[in-house]
Amino acid sequence: MLAADKLLLQSRIRQNAIQLKEKEFSLHNDNFGTVGTQAAVIAGFTMTAFVEISIPPEVNRVLKFFYFTAVMISLSMNVYCVSQTTTLSVCGTSLSLRGPDGSMIRAVDGMYAERAQVFRSFAIGLMSLLVSMMFGSWIIMDMEAAAGCNLILMYALWTLYDNCSRLFKRFQFDEAESTSFDDILNMSMSIPQQVSQLPHKVADMLHRGGTDRAAEAETLLPMHQQK
Length: 227
Description:
- It is a single chain.
- The protein is mainly alpha-helical and 227 residues long.
- It has 8 helices and no strands.
- The relative contact order is 0.14.
């Protein structure tokens, strides 16, 4: 009886741990959705800067080179960011819901590991857009207006970098101190071997999990012990 109660308790604890892990998965999925949406908007601005600009024929070729290079970097990085966030959301959700036992851990760890390159591509695309505006101001504006706009854009670049660095440092934490549910979720390695010693119907309920199944299993276990 005690062994059966222990298995039932382990099954419930593991189910609750999976629910907590699902919250972490939703956090990463929502973050990727937000970043991907903003990257798509910036990509639209960059495409407008590429198509709609009217460049006078007498403009220096070096300025045109750096302008279009910055525009292409911004467009490429933002499109890359959109594709990555879309792929991670689709594949991560599919793995966590339809994958084998332990798939939730794999999905969360995979999304957490890929977040760095997603944020990096978004930052490069945003910075490149501002840099392209600096060169674009020299192309379509007079010298005085272009100088003033460049000062404003340089201040915006510095403020953006400084604030992002400050915020990352403020919310930074040691990964070794983060909460982990791996020890609880790894119970799945030992539970099937112990469940196999129980009656088939009770073992099937414990293996499937769920509050209703666990309650029904509780009613069957004492009957089995009496027999």
